[in-house]
Each structure stands twice: as C-alpha cells, then as structure tokens.
C-alpha cells in the first residue's frame, strides 16, 4: 500500500471505514490516524499519519508468537489465525507499529454489554465473530476478502482525498511501485529491518 | 443495494446502502457519481450507528413537568400519534385564531430541501413571517451569505481547484473534510495540491488546512479584514497591480459619485453615469458610445464634483497601511506585503485561457472566506474585504479564480430545458442572483417594512437571512416600540438543538423560548433543546428512512456540487428501510396538518412557489391532487421530477438510479465571462438602504437599534468586543472550529465518531499554546475553566500545543452535551456556546449576524487532574 501524505488531511475516513467493514468492537482499531507535531510557534509542522498493519516482509510479530498463529500468505498479507492465537500479546509488544489489537470480549457500542442493542449490533457481533474472537489478537488483514473479490481495501475505497493506493509491490510497473519510485516513498522505521509493505509519500 | 444521498452533513454525497435481511449493514460511495466520486467520509460511514441507536426517539412524547429549564427533567410521557396529532392541531388552530404570526418555525440547515417543505412552505401557508435557522445559520451565515450573494450570486466562494495556482484561505477549510461539499472538495483540493496549487492559510491556529498548506499565517481571530484591506491598499496604491478592464466593465468602479456619497445620476434616465475620457463627458453606463471609462480622477459634471467610485475606494484604502494592519491583526507588515505581491503577480492580469473552445480571462488566484472569518461583529464588511481581493484582479468566476458555489447559472437540463438558473443586472447594472433559495434576495434590497412584522425585526433591514433580536434582553421593549401586535405563541422546530447551537443557553431560553406557550419539536433524539423547552416531541425519520426531493439542488442554497467543470447531479434521498418503530417523516405530518387545519390549498401554493423558485419552472402542484385525494409527498416528488426531467424520469426512475447527471457547461461554471453584470466595489446602495431602515427605527423611537454608521459604502475593519476588552484578566481570545468528524452538535452521539474523537488530541479539548500554558502554570490534560467578562463559563481538558497563537484558545465543534437523551455524547468535549452572548454588542450592525469570538480568562478546575 502507498499512502500519500501530501493528499492526506487526517479526516479519519480510513479509521471508520475499517471499523465499518470489519465490525471491530470498542477499543479495537485496525486502522488509525495519529498526528505528529514538531517545532516551536509559529514554525510548527503537524502531519497526519494514517497507520495500519505494515504487512512486513520480515514481521517481528511472527518471530515471537508461541502458537504460530501469525500467517503470511503468498501475496504477502500477514494475518492472525484466531483459532490458534491464545492472546498472550507478545506480538503486540514486538510490533514496532502498534498494529496489533486485543479485545477481551465483544461489547455493544451503546450499552457496553454482551447483548446487542439493535439488529445492526447483532449483525455486527456476528460479523466480528467471523473475523476474530474474544481474547485473541486481531489486526488489519488488508481486507483479504475484498481483495479476493477484486475490490480495494475498505480504507483505500473510502478515502475522500484519494491518498491511498493498493497494488502489487513485486510488479515494478504497478501504480504503487511507480509512486514509490517517482515520489520517493518511504517505510516507517526501516531501521528495525521489518521491510514494511506500506510506503509513505512525502508531504511536500 | 439502494441508492440515496447521505445526510450526515450537508455534503449530500450519493451513496450505495447495503441491506441484508432488511438490515442496513453498510454504506459506500458510488464511483460513477460526481457527488462523492465513490469516496465516503467517517461521518457517512457511521450512519448505521445513528439509524440503530437505541436512544433514538421512537414514539411521540409529551412533557409532564411544566417547569422548563436547563438540566430540568421534562418527565417525558409516551403518547400515541393520534393524541400527538390532536394536540398539535389544536395548538396550531388556536394560535391561528389568535394571530397566525405567533407561530415561529425553526429548521436545520443540514437538510435544505426537507426544510423547505417541512418549514418554509408550511409557515407561508399558515401565515407567519417568523422563521430562523437553529444555530448553524446564525453562526456561519449572515455576513458570508449576504456578501456571497451580492458578489457571486451564491452562498459562498471556493477556489477553482482545477486551475487555481494560489489560494488564500481566511478562516475557512474548503477541501479539508468539513463544511460545504466536504467530501468532493477533499478530492479536488488534494488533486490541486498534487498539481502544485499553493495554499496560504490565515488562521489563529494550526487547523488541518493550515497544517497541509504551504504557509500558515497565524492571525488574530476577527482581524482578517484589516489584513485584506492592507493587501488591497498595496495592490491599488503601491504595486499598481489591478485589473483595469475588469474594474471598468464588471464593477461599479467607474460610476460617478457625488459629494453626498451617492451616484450622480443622469437626470433623464436616472441611470448611473461614467466619465468618457475620449469625449471628455459623462454618459450613462449603458451608453453605446462609451468605449472607455475613467476609474480615477475628479470631474465636473453639471457643476457637481464627482469621482469614479473606484477613486473613492483607492483613497479610502490608504489608511490601511501594512504597518497599521499589522498592529491590528498580529501579522508582520513584511508578510502582508509579500503575500499581496505574490497574489497580484500570480493573478496574471490580462491573460486568457481557452476551454471547450471558449476563450476567457485566466486568473489563477483566489481569496476565500467563510465561517471563521465571518463569525465576528463586523462580518458583512469583513467578508466584503476578503472577497474584494478577487475582484481587484478580476479573479471572479473565471478560470483559476474564486468561483461561486453552485454555480448560480444553469442553462437547463438537456432535453427538457427546465431547471434554468440565471443572473441578471438590475437597472443600475448590478448583479442580481435570480435563483436565491429564499424569497428575500441579497440584492436589490427590499423596502424596510414600516413597522416591521417579524419578531426578529429582520424585515426592518435589507439582509436576506435572520437576526438574533428576538432573543435580546430588551426584546419586549422593542416589540412594544415597533408596535408588533402579537407575541411568541407556538414554535415548531425541525432538527434543531437551539439550546446548544445559538449562544448562551440560559439567555435563549429565558429571553425567547420560555415566552412560547407551546413548543413542538421534530427530532431524532431528545436533545438539550427538547429537554429544556419542548412540550411535544415527534420522532422524525432519519435520512435513511425518508424522502427528499433533491439534495444537490437548489445549487445556490445547498452549495455541495463539486466546483469547476464536471457534471451536474440531481440526487434524491429515499427510505432504505421503512421508518422503524413509530418514527414518521416530518413532511407526512406537515401534509396531514395542512389538511386538518384547512390549509391544503395554501400549502400547495406555498410549496409550488418554493419549488419553482428553487428548481426553476412553473409547476402547479394543485393539478396533481383531486379534491378527495390526500396530500402525499411521493406524488409531489414524482410531479417535480417528471416536470423537470421528462415523463420517463419520475420518482420510480430516481428510486432505481438514485440520481441523474449531465455535463456542466463552460458558460455555467465561468458565468461571469458570459454575463454583462457588475458588482459593487463601492456599496452605494447600502447608504440609501441603511438610511431607510434607520428612518423606520427612528420613527418608532429606537434610533440606536444598531450602529447605523456602519451602513455606508466603503469597507472598514471594526473591532469585536473581544478586541476592545480592557480588563487584562481576560487575556485569551476564544473561538470554535469545525472538525471533519462532526456536524454541528449531532454527531457526538454516534459511538464510532465519539470513540475516534476521544482518541484524537483535538476534538474534545481546549487547545492552548505551550508557552502560554507554562506561564499560566497549567499542563497537558489539566481540567480548566474558560470564563468571559459576563461570568459565563465552560470547562474542558487542555491540549497544549505550539500550533496556536499564544493569545488564543481553540475549541472544536459543538460538543459538551448534557442531555439524558444523548448518553454517548454526554460530557464529551467542550461546550463553547455557553460563552456566546446574544445581544446588540455581539451582533453585526449591517448583517445582524452573531459575533462568536470571546475574550476569556483561563483557570484550573479546583479538583485533581482528570484521568
């Protein structure tokens, strides 16, 4: 994935698109936006940085999980097998990007209870159980199901600024590869050797 | 998949709604639609949480506790719709018998078309002139829309994102997630920045737009006009950079003005005169022999000393030196000089561009104002000063420049030719916006009503919107003096939370709302307004449960079409699911009320008038209802659509396709190059109109109703009470801003939006400068109070940042709820409007809009630091 920081305004459409797509419960955000600020008034830089799982080529999470619940598909998507995960959260500690989420159990957004407060909440609870489970780690899966159907990940689809692009990094002619080359896309924390699959285009 | 228009804000993006087993399970954009481009924002995505919120109003309820007040438990009791309709009908019938003008109607600006049918048409049929827009309108509207209307025949202005090279933003956020056309403008602005458009943002704090801009210019809130007038001064008096041809033929710059400040008119025709320098004589501006006209100089016309109005403006601007402006606005004189020079140069005066085979002026700069710059005492002249920069360089409604939102010209739907919008000159040659969504145009001014009839005295003035006068402390005295023979009787509200959105709640309640014998509110939640003041609350259908005739038209009033060339779109709203429980679309109630009250004919006539003004044409709705047919909204919709688009494009077509789109034309987008209309660089007519209003006020013994000296022809900066506060204890200027996550006060109840807001450092906090915080001995996370000089105060958690002027504090949105009906929103964020005073001192003397900046003192809350 490529995220263009020149286009992004930090509006949180991606944050909510992901939540709406995967029905993540309270406290679980597979996608989020942070703001980085530096400088002293009036010379201040404030940059919105959308975050998600980086689907690293050398994932730290995979090296520490005791049950081998971390899986990497042929296309490079890193996923958590919720049946194998025991919720020890070593991976959450290891991940340099804060991409791992943990929910002790599903809660209704309005009441905080286990009982869904509406037909939509019931649907949401059911969908969440298909994606993950209580007491295990979950995270962004690059909308694997959508991608299989030829659709774009939910965050890419929603972004009003059209700041996100998804594609094949192994294809040097793909849009993502071209953007990285032409605009000098960078990974976050390359010094950890994670070789992330998410690149950021500079804001200026 | 059902197609509809989102209603989470007034961007009205067209969306595809996914339904499974009768449940709305998701919302996505429609990639083929120009109203969203297939994208969707956080608010739209969160709509299902609003639809299925267990706190939604599902049944009519009545107040059993006769005591009204902030935080008072209304003692809601559920009643049947039968009973509710009987109560409503009886109250309205009795009101009509006493005096129909006792009915006050209030509507939300989020749904203009719904408001037109629910509120505007019904009030006309009922026979009351009293109406206002709860909150949003008064805060963002009066100055901005009046000026947008006069100068651009539009609600507001926006850069031509496709061609603009340098845009200056003054307290506005076009393209950064909030406000008008939020979503479509976001893509357009991103594309523009990718192309290389430069953005310079004047803003007291590091807003989203300021943080992505090339340059953030930290300016004191409410002083933008001083900065802009100094830039204007530099352009015309120092740099000599102004578009002479534009000023000569597209403005009243050459119109000769006499010693009395008014046009020196031709005695025979009464038309304004210009000086023909080739023949050395004065001629009417319409004269065919005028091949050139003077913009400067002094001339003797029949013994009268006259000057072109542009000369008067030039002279007037001299006092706005960059140094003087700098003292007022806190921006260095060098910065003002530099930006003015760049603006003038980048405007490329004299250049042209060819688009679609049409050659037009090319002026790739834009000076854009909106809510932040207009929320001040001097808002009419503030907005005028900011928009005028475009007109000095000819960058108005031509490629690259500041474009009218809308736009205001539409040549007709291909095929039927219906839906025509146009602009035209009045007899003085000035721009008239023919398709303004309200009957009262921004220009030409109506004659003041003598005596005024409205409780807010709006009809005494020439402004096209509303005032706050009905909530002033001395309102009873004013009503008596102006011989208004009736008093507030019944109020009907559509989707407003007036207690939170107008100003200090207690002021509005005590001075205004408590005077009503009966208040009925149609809403989807029991908000602070219902709990404090309503007698009967009707559960409205949300936007996913109801119809709307058009969400993207009328263009001028809705301001959501993508700017520039592209496609027009007419989109409807339709129920995705049947209204749940006993929710009922307000329009159905209004139609039934019209029948019950014997107002059926009058309602259809009023709706016809609005439909034809808003959508062009002459449709007679009465033809569609036989004497025994019940009024039905779907029939009305079908009639409108078929009349505008053809017999095969009725409601069924729109239910299936969601919308209709067709190409925009160059003559519509860049209409100023194709219409012979002028705008006033000298507001001569305000002198005359102001005098008329003043005369009426004096006649009824209220000579100082407003500061009449502001009703003149030339722009000046005037301070807000904020800027003249003498007590040094009140040392911080407080203002509020619009977050992309929220729409007025409604969305904090949405748990997804609320959760994101809680995780975001800005949405629910008071932003304070790092150094200022250190000086005051407060730190990140501290709970503090902000208090104004009247003792009104509000509490919030601090976020300390370098991204704000040291002398300002910033608060987001309309948060800080306390109602029981909004448990998710309760206690989240900061309630800014507690600090807004509703009085003459804080009202623009020209446009009667609210001044919403306030000087405060900040102190720590007495408890421990909030966790």
- Shape, principal axes of CA atoms of chain B: globular
Radius of gyration of chain A: 17 Å
Strand line-up in the sheet with most strands of chain B:
5-4-25-24-23-6-7
The parts of chain A where pLDDT drops under 50 for at least 5 residues are none
Oligomeric state of the chains present here: heterodimer
Low-confidence stretches of chain B: none
Outline type of chain A: globular
Distance between the termini of chain B: 44 Å
- Order of strands across the main sheet of chain A: 8-1-9
Radius of gyration of chain B from CA coordinates = 26 Å
Q: Decide which structural class fits the backbone of chain B.
A: alpha/beta
Mean pLDDT of chain A: 95
Compute the number of helices of chain B: 28
SSE ordering of chain A: EHEEHEEHEHEHHEHE
**Mean pLDDT over all positions of chain B:** 95
List keywords for this structure.
heterodimer; A: 204 residues; alpha+beta; three-stranded mixed sheet; two-stranded antiparallel ribbon; globular; B: 867 residues; alpha/beta; seven-stranded mixed sheet; six-stranded mixed beta barrel; 28 helices; 30% helix
């Amino acid at each position: 994935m490529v995220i263009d920081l020149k286009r992004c305004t930090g509006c949180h459409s991606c944050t909510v698109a992901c939540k709406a797509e995967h029905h993540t419960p309270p406290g679980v955000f597979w996608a989020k936006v942070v703001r980085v600020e530096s400088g002293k008034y009036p010379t201040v830089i404030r940059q919105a940085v959308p975050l998600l799982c980086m689907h690293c080529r050398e994932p730290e999470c995979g090296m520490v999980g005791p049950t081998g619940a971390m899986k990497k598909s042929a296309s490079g998507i890193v996923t958590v097998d919720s049946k194998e995960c025991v919720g020890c959260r070593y991976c959450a500690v290891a991940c340099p990007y804060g991409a791992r989420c943990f929910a002790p159990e599903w809660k209704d957004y309005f009441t905080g209870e286990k009982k869904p407060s509406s037909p939509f909440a019931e649907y949401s609870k059911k969908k969440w159980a298909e994606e993950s489970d209580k007491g295990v780690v979950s995270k962004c899966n690059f909308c694997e199901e959508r991608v299989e159907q030829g659709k774009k990940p939910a965050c890419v689809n929603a972004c009003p600024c059209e700041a996100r692009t998804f594609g094949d990094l192994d294809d040097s002619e793909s849009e993502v590869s071209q953007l990285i080359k032409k605009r000098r896309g960078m990974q976050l924390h390359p010094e950890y050797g994670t070789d992330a699959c998410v690149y950021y285009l500079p804001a200026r | 998949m059902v197609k509809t228009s989102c209603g989470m804000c007034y961007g009205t993006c067209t969306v595809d709604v996914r339904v499974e087993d009768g449940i709305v399970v998701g919302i996505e954009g429609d990639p083929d639609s120009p109203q969203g481009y297939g994208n969707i924002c956080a608010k739209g995505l969160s709509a299902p949480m609003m639809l299925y919120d267990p706190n939604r109003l599902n049944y009519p309820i009545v107040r059993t506790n006769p005591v009204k007040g902030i935080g008072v438990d209304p003692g809601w009791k559920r009643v049947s719709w039968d009973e509710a309709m009987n109560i409503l009908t009886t109250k309205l019938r009795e009101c009509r018998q006493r005096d129909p003008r006792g009915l006050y109607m209030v509507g939300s600006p989020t749904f203009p078309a719904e408001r037109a049918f629910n509120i505007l048409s019904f009030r006309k049929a009922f026979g009351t002139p009293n109406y206002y827009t709860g909150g949003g309108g008064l805060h963002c509207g009066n100055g901005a829309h009046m000026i947008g209307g006069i100068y651009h025949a539009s609600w507001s202005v926006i850069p031509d994102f496709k061609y603009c090279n340098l845009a200056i933003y003054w307290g506005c956020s076009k393209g950064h997630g909030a406000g008008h056309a939020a979503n479509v403008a976001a893509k357009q602005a991103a594309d523009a920045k990718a192309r290389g458009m430069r953005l310079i943002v004047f803003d007291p704090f590091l807003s989203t737009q300021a943080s992505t801009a090339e340059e953030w210019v930290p300016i004191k809130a409410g002083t933008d006009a001083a900065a802009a007038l100094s830039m204007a001064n530099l352009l015309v008096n120092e740099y000599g950079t102004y578009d002479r041809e534009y000023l000569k033929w597209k403005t009243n710059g050459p119109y000769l003005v006499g010693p009395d400040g008014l046009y020196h008119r031709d005695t025979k025709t009464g038309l304004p005169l210009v000086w023909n320098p080739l023949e050395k004589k004065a001629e009417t501006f319409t004269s065919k022999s005028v091949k050139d006209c003077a913009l400067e100089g002094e001339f003797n016309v029949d013994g009268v000393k006259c000057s072109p109005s542009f000369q008067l403006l030039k002279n007037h601007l001299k006092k706005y030196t960059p140094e003087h402006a700098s003292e007022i606005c806190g921006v260095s004189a060098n910065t003002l000089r530099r930006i003015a020079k760049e603006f003038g140069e980048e405007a490329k005066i004299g250049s042209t561009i060819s688009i679609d085979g049409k050659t037009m002026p090319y002026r790739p700069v834009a000076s854009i104002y909106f809510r932040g710059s207009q929320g001040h005492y001097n808002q009419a002249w503030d907005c005028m000063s900011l928009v005028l920069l475009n007109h000095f360089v000819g960058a108005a409604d031509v490629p690259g420049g500041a474009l009218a939102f809308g736009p205001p010209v539409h040549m007709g739907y291909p095929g039927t030719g219906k839906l025509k919008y146009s602009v035209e000159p009045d007899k003085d040659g000035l721009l008239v916006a023919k398709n303004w969504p309200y009957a009262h145009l921004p220009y030409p001014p109506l004659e003041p009503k003598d005596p005024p009839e409205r409780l807010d005295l709006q009809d005494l003035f020439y402004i096209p919107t509303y005032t706050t006068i009905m909530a002033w402390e001395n309102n009873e005295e004013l009503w008596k003096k102006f011989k208004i023979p009736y008093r507030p009787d019944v109020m009907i509200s559509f989707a407003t939370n007036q207690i939170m959105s107008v100003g200090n709640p207690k002021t509005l309640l005590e001075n205004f709302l408590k005077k009503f014998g009966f208040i009925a509110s149609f809403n989807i939640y029991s908000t602070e307004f219902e709990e404090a003041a309503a007698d009967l609350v009707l559960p409205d259908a949300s936007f996913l449960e109801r119809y709307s005739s058009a969400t993207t038209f009328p263009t001028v009033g809705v301001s959501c079409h993508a700017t520039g060339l592209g496609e027009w779109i007419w989109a409807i709203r339709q129920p995705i699911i049947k209204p749940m429980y006993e929710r009922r679309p307000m329009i159905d109630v209004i139609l039934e009320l019209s029948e019950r009250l014997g107002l059926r004919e009058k309602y259809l006539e009023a709706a016809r008038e609005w439909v034809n003004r808003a959508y062009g044409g002459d449709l007679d709705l009465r033809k569609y209802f036989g004497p025994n047919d019940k009024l039905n909204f779907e029939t009305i919709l079908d009639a409108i659509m078929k009349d505008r688009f053809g017999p095969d494009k009725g409601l069924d077509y729109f239910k299936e396709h969601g919308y209709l789109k067709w190409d925009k034309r160059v003559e519509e987008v860049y209409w100023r190059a194709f219409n012979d209309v002028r705008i006033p660089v000298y507001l001569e007519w305000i002198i005359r109109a102001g005098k008329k209003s003043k005369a009426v006020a004096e006649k009824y013994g209220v000579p100082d109703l407003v500061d009449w000296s502001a009703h003149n022809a030339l722009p000046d900066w005037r301070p807000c009470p904020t800027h003249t506060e003498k007590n040094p204890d009140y040392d911080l200027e407080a203002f509020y801003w619009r977050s992309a996550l929220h729409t007025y006060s409604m969305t904090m109840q949405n748990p997804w939006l609320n959760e994101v807001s809680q995780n975001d450092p800005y949405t629910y906090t008071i932003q304070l400068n790092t150094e200022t915080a250190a000086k005051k001995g407060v730190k990140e996370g501290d709970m503090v109070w902000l208090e104004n000089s009247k003792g009104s105060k509000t509490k919030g958690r601090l976020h300390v940042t370098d991204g704000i002027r040291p002398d300002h504090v910033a608060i987001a949105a309309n948060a800080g709820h306390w109602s029981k009906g909004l448990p998710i929103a309760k206690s989240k964020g900061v309630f800014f409007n507690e600090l807004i005073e509703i009085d003459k001192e804080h009202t623009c003397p020209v446009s009667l809009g609210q001044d919403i900046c306030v000087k405060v003192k900040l102190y720590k809350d007495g408890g421990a630091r909030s966790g």
